Every structure is written in C-alpha cells, then in structure tokens.
C-alpha cells in the first residue's frame, strides 16, 4: 500500500515499533475497560480551570477512538522512514519538540476560535495526533514525488497520494480534529525550519537516548528481513536466488579489489605525473601502427626518455590499477552507507547500478520502492 517506505517492516525503527505496540495496546485495554476512559480525555477546561495538568500527558498520548488509533498507526508506520534516515534520537527529538509546541498551540487556537466565533472548545480528540500531523511537514518537503498511475487519464496518483488520503480520513473523523491538525502542522513547520532555534531547545538528551538504547531498544528492536537471513531455513526460491546473486556480487568486488591491491604493490609507477591517467588514448597508442625498425640513438637520449610514455603491457596494467581501485573503493563505501540506512545489500547494488553509482539518486530510488 505505502510505496514510499519499502517492504522492510520495522527494521531499524525501534521507536516507531514501540509507539505502535504500546499506544495501540493501551487503546485496546481502554476499550475493554471503559470505566477508565475518563482519565484519558483531553479536556481543556479541566486543565485550565481545575489545573489537572496530568491530562496533558494522558490525553495527548492514547487514542480513545479505534478509528483514530488505526489511522494514526498507519501514518506512524509510514513515517518510520524518518527514523531510518535521521536516526532514532533525532526522530524522538522531533516528536518531543512538536508534542510540546502543539500543546501550546492547542490552547492558543482554542482561544482564537472562541474569540472569533464565540464558541468555547471544551475538549479535543485524544491521542498522539498533533505530532503525527506534524510529520506531514518533512514528508511533504523531503520525500520526492513520483507518479505511479493515472485515473481517467487526468488524475495523477503518486507514491504519496495514499498517505494524504489516510491523513484526510483522520482529519474528518472528529469535529475538532482540524484544530489538532492545524496545531500539528504549525508546530512541525516551526520545528523543521528551526526559525526560533527550537531544535537546540526541545530535544532528547544524549543520556536519555543511551538509556533507551540499552533498555528499550533490545525489547522493541526488529530482526533483519528474510532476504538477509542465511540460505535455506525455509526461504523461498526467489529469496535464495537473490541471496546467491548478492554473494556473487560481494565475491566479485572483493576479488577485483584484492587483485588491484596486489598489482599496485607489485608494479608501482614512477614519475610525479601519470599522463596515461589523464589521457586514456595514450594506453592504445602505437597498437594499430605498422611496426617500424627502431633507429639507433645515443645512450644519452635513451636515458632521458620519460618512463611514463612506455607502451609496454606493464604500463597498461598499472593504468588499469589506478582506474579500478578508486571505483571499487567508492562502490564498496556506497553500498556500506546504504546498508547502514537499513536497506539490504542486494537492493543497494541494484539501486547503484540503476543510478550509475549516484548515491543520492540510489537513496531516493530505494526510499520509493
């Protein structure tokens, strides 16, 4: 359904997984125990007049409506791409910062609505809704838009259309959901742009991140996808074929790299400037000419001839070494960077081939498929 996030599940997204499991679990428990639902109602008057500040925490975390919980869970699952791209700590800082900003925006927008339309907003829908709406800001700005299909030949369906449809469904689920959506969008825009340097004020400290890394991450971390498990173990034929291709690609890269290093050590080039690297046509110079008997020259002229203009097979192998080593090293580093972002090695190799070894184009290609 969501083509922007790939098919790797919640791998390398422990915070998104914890939010989905914990918040949805609490929603199910409150549905089975309706006598405790009043504690999680996001009641603005109770907060301002009766000073029940704890309702800010309870009312802005757990959804009381199953439909709101389902739609927000779909959006959190889709927005896990930001946790993979920026890391868990930055993703948690964004959610924490927008949660604090949206709490202030809720009261300001409620007061503005009462001042303009003489209607007092008593309560708002419960749940982690405003931070979820705030994630639409980086989703709109940083995720590229790619066409998928067309409806009736005029309406274009992109890889982001279904996400907006789910957001629209969540927006129309409650009468005052638009107020939370507006609060979340404003908060997300302020935090993402860092106009007031909010990213340096509202963030998750390093020590909190380390506690979550050592305590919570082992509980909510997901294992690697099936395509990266060893051969066999119930894997399908397609998965086994992809794994064999991946192993062959790795062996080929390692063999070329080892051969290049061996040749570079055995045949070092002399001279400060290698003209054969700057002018590849010099490598084949003289191959198509008719062999001519060399003229005898004095010993002085032979000693002063530049060694880098020699067309012997040794010089050609040396040029191949200098051309292949940087290419292999860059390819290995690019594959390693894509694997660290959560993509499989076979997907990274295919994306680099399709993008002509452009790391940015390959990253965008993997994020869209």
From TrEMBL:
It is found in: Membrane. SMART domains: UBA. Keywords: Membrane, Transmembrane, Transmembrane helix. One of its GO terms (cellular component) is membrane. Its main location: membrane. InterPro entries: Rhomboid-like_sf, UBA, UBA-like_sf, UBA_UBAC2. Residues 287-311 are annotated as: Disordered. It is a multi-pass membrane protein. Pfam families: UBA (PF00627). GO terms for molecular function: serine-type endopeptidase activity. Residues 314-369 form the UBA domain. The chain crosses the membrane at residues 94-118, 124-141, 162-191. Gene3D superfamilies: DNA helicase RuvA subunit, C-terminal domain, Rhomboid-like. It comes from the Eukaryota. This is UBA domain containing 2. The lineage of its organism: Eukaryota, Metazoa, Chordata, Craniata, Vertebrata.
């Amino acid at each position: 359904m969501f083509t922007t996030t790939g098919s790797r599940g919640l791998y390398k997204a422990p915070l998104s997984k914890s939010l989905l499991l914990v918040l949805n679990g609490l929603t199910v428990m409150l549905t089975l125990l309706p006598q405790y639902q009043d504690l999680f109602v996001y009641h603005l008057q109770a907060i301002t007049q009766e000073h029940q500040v704890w309702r800010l925490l309870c009312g802005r975390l757990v959804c009381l409506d199953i439909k709101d919980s389902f739609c927000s869970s779909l959006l959190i699952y889709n927005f896990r791409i930001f946790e993979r791209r920026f890391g868990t700590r930055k993703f948690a800082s964004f959610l924490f910062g927008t949660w604090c900003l949206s709490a202030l925006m809720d009261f300001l927008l409620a007061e503005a609505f009462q001042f303009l339309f003489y209607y007092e907003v008593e309560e708002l829908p419960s749940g982690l809704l405003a931070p979820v709406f705030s994630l639409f800001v980086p989703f709109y700005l940083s995720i590229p838009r790619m066409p998928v299909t067309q409806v009736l030949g005029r309406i274009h369906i992109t890889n982001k259309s279904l996400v907006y449809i789910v957001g629209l469904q969540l927006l129309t689920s409650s009468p005052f959901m638009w107020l939370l959506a507006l609060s979340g969008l404003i908060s997300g825009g302020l935090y993402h742009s860092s106009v007031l340097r909010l990213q340096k004020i509202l963030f998750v400290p390093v020590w909190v991140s380390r506690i979550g890394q050592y305590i919570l991450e082992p509980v909510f971390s997901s294992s690697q996808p099936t395509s990266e498990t060893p051969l066999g173990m119930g894997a399908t034929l397609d998965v086994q074929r992809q794994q064999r291709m991946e192993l062959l690609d790795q062996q080929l890269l390692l063999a070329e790299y080892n051969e290049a290093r061996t040749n570079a050590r055995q045949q070092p080039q002399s001279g400060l400037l290698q003209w054969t690297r700057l002018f590849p046509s010099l490598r084949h110079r003289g191959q198509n000419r008719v062999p001519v008997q060399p003229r005898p020259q004095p010993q002085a002229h032979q000693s002063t001839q530049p060694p880098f203009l020699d067309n012997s097979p040794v010089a050609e192998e040396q040029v191949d070494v200098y051309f292949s080593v940087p290419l292999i090293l860059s390819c290995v580093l690019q594959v390693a960077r894509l694997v660290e972002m959560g993509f499989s090695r076979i997907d990274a190799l295919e994306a680099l081939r399709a993008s002509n070894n452009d790391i940015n184009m390959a990253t965008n290609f993997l994020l869209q498929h």
